[in-house]
């Protein structure tokens, strides 16, 4: 064995997916329920009284944003929990002593986290269909973008899971930074609706580009350039991969 | 010596806090042997194992396993190395058979149900294969750790305090298992606090203290070189001085002249023969005695002497 340990990566991947199955309520039912409540409150109850945005009904307008909200939080938490728990319980010794490196670890942990997010995304889109009518203008690009976001934030979650040295830290970034930025990133509104200077300030929020990137694949229009959205997401992906490569090279928080 | 299966040279580890856990360690392990690494707490045993297995980043030095440099060709080397850690670190919510099967896959080996069954049966875990690990006793969890380490049939197995905190029955079972593995040709490196364990199983013994290897030798040679015979002869009548005819023996009067203490030999049995000669000499000198207590120094005595900085007991 000199190169990629395919069986090792597959073993991690399968085990991580099975872990999600063991906690199906927390992993799948809980986010579906939460998203359904959003659709009921914002889509059905309030949405009927909201004007169309860019020619799209309000209920349909928030579908990409809500999908992204789930993708970001679930990808991050799944991957962070996946690598944090072995560190917490000490079972990381096996991973570190096995013939697996950064590539196998990423395919295993991050691939499983991204897969779970994609399954969730499919379930949420199906759930959304029960509450609002929506269409996807660029389905292939939408699928690619969803995979890109799921992978990027699974990588980000992996970094968080390596960084965190207690459960509190594990939750701080998703709850105190990611969630507020997502809510303020145009999930439920177009940033055109914001008065000056807030619409300009909103452009400093990276989540705005993610929400609008996905919204463009759904409805063909967005508040920001689609090229910029894709570029920033790819850049974030590359940054996370680089950070993880450095973590493995230096052994930071993994090896003494 | 044939090419060592594990060759460590100049291995040094300084932790970020400045603690030097390993200090220029050189060690060569032969294929098929059982090597016991002895040392007090904090001596560097676990750090040494961690450095070989990839848990610890060496500060300096070189580790070669099976001819592969662990710094550059670690995948091929690690695929042949198993580790049973000291801590009971297991995935509590996983079943025994899944956890063990996972370990085999992680090391790059295809599924082998027959082998997994054999490993679980050899560790009396087969009946517990579908139990969650959290439901098992501490001893059974340790067996699971061993099963995980054996699942990929390692050629080199590290056992870090394998019998710490386990009952006598399990300890004997593990000794038997280790003997089976030796017969299959597996090289085993174990650390232990139980000198009896090293004395029972090891072919060679290394003593480590403060991150430095103090001595590495065949167990029998070490016992012969540093071993001693001690005898206490209880005299029928106390003596004030040792009679001149006995002055060639390494003896002294103790307990106010009521006992004669012999300390000599070399661990090969020479001491016992000399004690027999001593008793004859006592009778010839008309000195009666009422009791004799003879003991050979154990590996523990040698170990204690070494870590105390002495050259034997």
| Percent in strands of chain B | 25-35%
How many distinct helices of chain A?
A: 10
Q: Major β-sheet of chain A, in short?
A: none
CATH superfamily of the largest domain in chain B: P-loop containing nucleotide triphosphate hydrolases
The computed structural class of chain A is mainly alpha
Task: Tell me the span between the first and last alpha carbons of chain A.
Answer: 25 Å
**Could you give the order of the helices and strands of chain A?**
HHHHHHHHHH
Write up this protein.
The complex is a heterodimer of chains A (256) and B (313). Chain A has 256 residues and is mostly helical. Chain A is 76% helix and 0% strand. Chain A is built from 10 helices and no strands. In chain A, helix 3 (58-89) crosses helix 9 (206-219). The longest helix of chain A has 32 residues, at 58-89. Chain A starts with 5 loop residues before the first helix and ends in a 6-residue tail after the last helix. In chain B, helix 3 runs parallel beside helix 5 (138-150). With 313 residues, chain B is of the alpha/beta class. In chain B, helix 6 (168-184) links the parallel strand 7 (156-160) and strand 8 (187-192). The longest helix of chain B has 17 residues, at 168-184.
In short, what is this structure?
The complex is a heterodimer of chains A (256) and B (313). Chain A has 256 residues and is mainly α.
List the helices and strands and how they pair.
The complex is a heterodimer of chains A (256) and B (313).
Chain A: H1 6-22, H2 24-46, H3 58-89, H4 92-97, H5 102-131, H6 139-163, H7 167-183, H8 198-202, H9 206-219, H10 226-250
Chain B: E1 6-14, E2 20-29, E3 34-38, H1 45-53, E4 60-65, E5 68-69, H2 74-78, E6 81-84, H3 96-106, H4 113-122, H5 138-150, E7 156-160, H6 168-184, E8 187-192, H7 195-201, E9 204-209, E10 212-218, H8 219-226, E11 229-235, E12 251-254, E13 259-264, H9 270-284, E14 289-296, H10 299-307
Parallel strand pairs in B: 3-8, 3-9, 6-7, 7-8
Antiparallel strand pairs in B: 1-2, 1-4, 4-5, 9-10, 11-13, 11-14, 12-13
